[in-house]
Amino acid sequence: MMMPEIKNILYCTDLSKNASFAFKYAVYLAKKTGANIHILKVVEELSNEEKFTLQTYIINQVSREEFLKQRLKNANTQLQERQEYFWKEIAPEEHAMRKKIVSCEIIEGYPTQTILRRSKELDCDLIVMGAHEKGWLHTLLGSVAKNVLRESRIPTLIVPRPEKKAQKEKSA
């Protein structure tokens, strides 16, 4: 049986340090397979309680809309900064891989559903994401990663945090 070809990788980021580590895997796999990379950051939709609080404290409709736009703008700025930092840190001969990034989106929504929906819409063959920053087994992965892993119909690579020792040795 032939293995399915990997043409499109959906790399999902929560903008944590571990997400950058997971991005190395997405780039490496794209290099090995010739796949394109789609970057996705989901900004969690506000809960009804949060929306109510926002309406209570920010009476002005325009100010509320501005606040919501600002959340997406901040995520976008952070995503761009992370990308710039990543490409500065990576070996110069790898910079050609940057052209493999064919889309970079920030979408407001529910993370698991948004990731699964975009993976289908973008015709992805693989999802790559980092394990959550909090302790390993509590959430084994983090609820979003766990749910994506459970519900995805395509292979999903969850990259654990690098060991602190391994990071120190590399920087020494």
Q: What would your notes on this structure say?
A:
This protein has 172 residues and is an alpha/beta fold. It has one domain: HUPs (Rossmann fold, 3-Layer(aba) Sandwich), CATH 3.40.50. The chain is 49% helix and 19% strand. It contains 6 helices and 5 strands. Strands 3-2-1-4-5 form a 5-stranded parallel β-sheet, with helices on both faces. Strand 4, helix 5 (143-151) and strand 5 (156-159) form a beta-alpha-beta unit. The protein is globular, with a radius of gyration of 18 Å. Residues 136-141 and 167-172 have low confidence and may be disordered.
- Computed Rg: 18 Å
Give the % helix.
Answer: 40-55%
Order of helices and strands: EHEHHEHEHEH
Report the sheet-strand fraction: 15-25%
Mean pLDDT: 86
Total number of helical segments? 6
Largest sheet: 5 strands, parallel
Specify the CATH homologous superfamily. Answer: HUPs
| CATH architecture term | 3-Layer(aba) Sandwich
The number of distinct β-strands equals: 5
- End-to-end separation: 45 Å
What would you call the structural class? alpha/beta
Shape: globular
Uncertain stretches of 5 or more adjacent residues = 136-141, 167-172
Domain tally: 1
The top-level CATH class is Alpha Beta
**What is the CATH topology?**
Rossmann fold
Strand line-up in the sheet with most strands: 3-2-1-4-5
InterPro entries: Rossmann-like_a/b/a_fold, Universal_stress_UspA, UspA
Domain UspA: 6-160
Protein name: Universal stress protein
Family: Belongs to the universal stress protein A family.
